[in-house]
Structures are given as C-alpha cells and as structure tokens.
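CORE FACILITY INTAKE
Project code: CF-77B
Contact: R.S. (postdoc)
Sample description: multi-component assembly, two entities in total
Requested service: structural model of the whole complex
Turnaround: standard
Below are the sequence entries exactly as provided by the requester. Do not edit them.
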Amino acid sequence: VAARRAQKQARSRATREFVSEAEEILERMRADLADLADARGTGGVAPELANRLFRSAHSLKGIAGMFGFEGVSDLAHHLEDILDGLRMGRISPGAPALDLLDEAVELVSGLLERGDGDDAADAQAQVHALIERIVAAVAGVAEPAAADVLEGIDSAVLRALTEYEEHRLRESVRGGRAVHLVEASFEILSFEDGLSELTRAVRELGEVISTLPAPGDSPDSQIRFSLLVATECDSGALRARIDIPNASVRGLRETSTAPGESAPAPAAHAEPLADPADSGGDGIESLKSISDTVRVDIRKLDELMNLVGELVIQRGAIGAIADRLLGDPVTSRIGRELAKVHKALERRLADLQAGVLEVRMVPLRQVFEKLSRVVRRLRRDLGKEVRLDIRGGDTELDKLIVEQLADPLMHVVRNAFDHAIESADERVAAGKPAEGSIRIEALQRGNHVVIEVADDGRGIDPEAVRRRAERLGLVERDAVLSRKETLDLIFAPGLSTTQEITETSGRGVGMDVVRENVTALGGLVHVDSQIGRGTTVVFTLPITLAIIRALTVGVADQRFAIPLTAVLETMLVDPSTIQRSEGREFLTLRGEPLALRRLHAEFGLAAPPLAARLAVVVVGLGDLRLGLLVDRLESQQDAVIKPIQGPVRSVRGIAGATELGDQGTVLVLDVASLVEDAAKRREAA
Amino acid sequence: MSIEAEAIAEPFEEVARRAALHADATSDGSTERELLVLWLGDDAYALPVERVREIVRLRPITPMPRVPASVRGVLSLRGEIVQVIDLRRRLGLASSGDDNPRRRIVVLNGEDGQMTGLLVDRVSEVLRLRDEDLRPPTGREAGTVAALAPQGNRFVSVFDVDRVLDLGVGA
C-alpha cells in the first residue's frame, strides 16, 4: 500500500510540476498570440514572435511527452506545423490559423485545469478533433515555388542551413539586402562571451541568419565560428563595426563563385546551434537570457517570508529593550546607542522585507490578458460588439492573490458582457453608441489595490433587486434600505438579477461566490449602478497576504490581533448608549444601527469589571458591519499570520496566530467568520 | 539507566532516524523498537521515538477559545504555531501545577507534516525492546494505549499516538 501511495504521490508531484510549467508556457503563448492578432493588419509575421511561439509549442511538446501527456504532446506537435508555416510565410496569419492556435491553447489550458490531464476519453476526442482540423488546414497550404534567388551563394553554406534559416536568407536576398560571412576565432574557454559580443555587434547592423562552427587552421585552444549575416551595409561598414582583431568579413552575395576554402562544418556539428526550436538561429544569446530568470516554488518564498517575519519580531524585542534602557537614567546612555543601532536595523529589515515581498509580486496583466481573451471569444460567439479597455496591467499583487482573483474577475466581466450590455439595436434606441464598453482599471492605493470593472450597459434596477430579495426572503417587506444597501444585495446567495441562464455566465456561480472569494483574500467588493448608464464593480484587495498591519486588543487576560484591513474604525462608547433588541445588543452609529458582540462572551473568557467607557472595534465584511466590544485597545503592529498546526484543524473566529515581539504568540481573529456568524444568528432570530 | 530529562531535551530527529533504521533491519524476523518514556505523576507511558520531533521545556502557552478542554492552547516553535495538548486533561486525569520545572512539551510529528505538542510531567529515557516483548493493553477497548511494554519489573503503557491526537473533532 505504501509503495502504491508513494507512486501515486510521485505521479501527482510530477503532474503538478508539469501543470505549473505548462501553464507558464501557455501564458507566454497567449501573450504572443495576442500580439500576433494585433499585428495582423500589418501583413507579415515578426520573425521573433513566430520563433517564440514555435519555441513555446516545442517546449510544450517536450514536457508533455516527458510527463506522459500524449494527447497534449501530439497537439503541440501539430501546432508546430502551423507555426512553422507562419514562420516560413507558407501560412498567412489570418483568422483561421489564429483561431486554431487560440483554441488549442484554451483546450490544453482546460485540460490542465481539470487536473486529470488528457486521460479522459472525451478529452482525447477533443484533442483528436482539433488535431484533424489542424492537419486539414496545414495540408491545404501549397509549398511556394522555390525561387532561385539564392543562386550564387556558396552551396556549402546553403547545405548547412536549416529550412528556416534558408527561408530567412531567401527573404533577405529578395529584400535586396547584402549577405556576408563573418568569421572569427575565439579562445575555447571563453568563446561564449566573445561570440555573443560579436553577435551583438553584428545585430546592430543586420540580421544574424545562422551561427556555424567553422574549420580552419586556428590553434587547438581556439574555436572558429562563421556568422551568416544579412544587412543593408557593405562589408566595409560591417568590418568597421566589428571590434575583434582576427575577424574577417566576406561578401557572399556579391561574389558569384566562392572558393570552397572555408566551407562550414558538417551539419551534424552545426545542429545544436542552428536548431530553430532551441535557439531561433541566434544561439548563444538566447540561451543566456534563459538563465536570467529563476523559477521558484512559492513555498520557498513562504519560508523566506517566515524568516523575515521572525527577524521583524526579534527587531521589535530589541526595540523594547532599548526603550527600557532609555527609561532608566542609569542606562539611558547605552539605551540611546542601542536605539540608534535598532533604528538602522529597522531600516535594513524594512528593505529586506520589501525585497522579499517584491519577489512574490506579479503584474495583474496575466489575469487581464485572460479576460481580454475571454471577451474576444465572447465577441465571436455571441456576435456582440463590445470594446474592452484595460488599464493598470502593470499594477502588482502577491502571486497568490492574483491567482485567486482570476475567477471572480472573470465572472464579473462575463456578467457585464452577457447581461449588462444591451444589443446594438437597443443601445442605439437608447441613444448610446452601438458598441458597448467594458473598462477594467487597476491602481494601487496605499497598501491596497483597487480594481474597477465598469460597463456602460443597462445598469441594475434597485427595485427589481429588492423585489427579488423579498421573494427569496432575504429582506423583510418593511425593511428600510439605502440605495447602496439594496444594490449590495446582489452579493447575497441565490440572487441574480436576470432569470435567464445562458451558456456564458450560467455556470452556477453567482455574485455571492465572487464576494466569498474576495473576502477570503481579505478584500472587499462593492457595486454601484445607474439605471441606463451602467454598473461598476469595485474590488479592494490587500497587496500581500503575508504581512499585515494588525490592531491588538485585550480581552480578559488575553490579547488578540485584528487585521487592520477589516477594521473600519475604533471608538470608546458610554455603556448607557448600548441598546437591546431581542436580547441582542446594538449601538446607533451615525444614524444606523450597528450590531454588537462582546468578544469575551464569544470566546468564553472572564467578563471585565464595569467601566465608564467601552472599547468598540467596528469591523466590516462587504456590506456587513459588526461592532466588537473588547476590554482594551492596544497598538498597531506588523504581523505575519501563520496557520495553526495540530489536531483541531479550524476554529470559527480564529484565522491563525502571529508572534508579536515580547507579547509572545497572539491569535488573529477571523473577522469574516465572526461577522458572518453574527449575521446568521440575526437571520435565525 | 535513567537519564536526566535535561540531557535529552534536544532535537530528536537523530534518534528517530536511527529508530527507523532499526525498525527496517530485522535480523531474526522481529522488529526492534525505541520508545520514549514519559511520566504523569507516578505512571509511566511511552511513545514510539520516530513520532517525536523534539522535546522542549514548558513555556508560556497562548490559550485558544472554542477548542476541547484538552487543548491547552498554542505556542510558537521556531516560527511555526503548534497546538499543545495537555496529556493529563486528554486522559481525564487531575491537573498538576505548571510550576513543576520538569514539565516538558513533547513535539510530535502528525500526519501531513503537522506538528502537535504534548504536555507531560516529565520525560526520562529511551527504551529499546523487541516486538515480542510487548503485551496487549489491559485498559478499555479502543483506548489511547496500544500495548504494554516491560520496564524492569513493571510495565509502561505505549500510546497509539494517532488515537491520542484524535480529539473527536472534525479534521
């Protein structure tokens, strides 16, 4: 049994690895496909773009094969055919090719999300169907007649070129550019640097079509390369640009017959450098660029974050000691010195903390690209004209948050597309432009990122929301609600303003799930809407989950931390201002009732002695508010929330624990569950 | 053969690893076990050493609301927050004062790498014995004791760690 479990674990680990790597490749392909679609109007396909896509498909094929995902590997292999056709100019970058590519990326991505890879029969059927369509599309393309523009170029050089390199050479000659062979010798030990320097220099003047090792009478400690270069310049200008003493430049295009003295090395030798799938024809440099980035398991960053958190806590303890020394006249001199050192430590630690946090940050662009793809597809499927404006894609958030945000955002955007934006006829009749608009904008505000999704559709009718909420028993008929409160009812479970379920948004998740997901991240979501003008959904999210500001409060002989993101305000109230209704206490806060809970009673702790003033922490979750009565308001601190290990897996009201300097381990309140429980008891009452 | 408790108040991973090796290397078909002996008052109990991660002195425990009474609270172990079960309370025994300087928290490896602290009166030694030396428990069926192990002319109760950690609350 153990062996089988180990095997299963190894298998699932391998799958996880594959999924994470494949997702990265798909992400890159999506971005490149979007660029390709954008550049469609300009005619040609940029060679780097086509190459990058080809390399991505090739990598996908490789890792899918390695991890035993035959279907995906096969599909990727056929994608190479299309992409190769695009690179070679055999296939035009029109809608049919792009749609096939889009579809393939989505199919693979769908398979990954399902988690069971491509084993299932229906998945296999889908993959095969798509492959057949690709085969049909590629087969329909005729090989263009090979023009003899290459006549006059050394046949030994031509023999060493790959099909792609030959294509580039042909294109260059057709474009009237000169072709040169640049040769240079390098020390074997350091040839990579020299070669990449040479490549860089040549690139400033033209295109390096191929890099080939060259034979020659160079000493054993040296290696000789020849670069096939297409350029507008003559060989003199090229030679002037190259700063390597032993380099030679030979015009190939001009001389019709070349002596065979410097024939390039056999192809077998040249292959590793010249294989377009690996190096795109400019080998050394692109290999180098790969090593500039490091893939890191997010858990390793968590560990690092933990360590930094510990240091922050130690730092706090040192600060406390410095304060104690300062307070005593006998030790105040050494206290001042310690305080100074502590100050410097604090600054460095803040830098370190920011640095580690920054590593976890990714731009929202990744999610926004997904959204724009969905809108593109919806446009195609539903034939609705909707413009998508995206701003602030560079805004960065913790990787974990960005991942969790994709679904809620997707849902809101689909809603806007499907339900909010009217048909073109309706819009024109209402005096609006025929084309609808969805605007997504992200911006950073302090420790939060605000994301707005705004449409110019029909808007939400508060009356209709109210009627539906009453029918579902979510509000009393005589309850008085503000316009905003009414609108926020759309986040209540089971309420959706349109009865019709369509394929695009009828996936069984509603706005209640959106709110649930967002609050799980410590965020808030609100809605505002004007009938006939449109709806705006506003997400407010913390930048990071790892370190938060927390308010510490005292209850009986204990201390609890409350994430500041959930705290709306704190105040001291006179006990006589507390009212009761059905045995439940509440306060009047700016003309509105605010439900109260005494934290000592919630947690079964000793009641405090009577006090003249009571401390209230007002916490909020979406549209829900709750006043927590505590014994003492203490201080604000940086806190690293950690999960609690042990046999009791979860406790309502407790989100985790944190260490606060000399205060030891402090439990962190789970505001969401406290507020929800209070609301539920209200409903049940 | 009793060792002072302080002498083994150190990470137990080395011992645990050795114990695991022993368990595999059976020369004559029987398995040798290593058991950590711990005490509640005058009663000796034992735990398989391979489940023990480390032993630490009693330190301030932050109480936790809304948990079974046997959970004393949480403490931080090198940055990880771990629940501490009071073994006396878990077994329904009378409490003893925390001012006893020999009280220790035995940190156990749970499933999925989760840790749990077990508060005991003191720990004494590591017992080596063979499987065939073990006797069935005399207590109730499905209790927390899995076997009795001979120690001199007495027997110590060997815990089934998973049952000790099962507080009857949903995972």
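Facility notes:
- The interface with chain A takes residues 60, 62-68, 71, 74-76, 79-85, 110, 114-117, 165-167, 169-171 of chain B (CB under 8 Å).
- The CA atoms of residues 4 and 158 of chain B lie 21 Å apart.
Invoice: internal transfer
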